[in-house]
Amino acid sequence: MPDEKKSKNDKKGVSAKTRGKVKLEVYGEEMVEKIVKQSGNSGRVYLPPDWVGCRVKIIRVD
């Protein structure tokens, strides 16, 4: 079997769930809070149409 890609966390032996919470400070123009919905084998979040073409950052809060 070919080498499987590993995330940075796997290489360090630390899982994302055991690291705990971190404080992030983000500056921006607008914010919306949404729940991610199931979409096939991944998740989906709908954003306002006027955000199309804009850079966004997604932060998981729980």
TrEMBL record:
Highest taxon of source: Bacteria
Protein name as catalogued: DUF2080 family transposase-associated protein
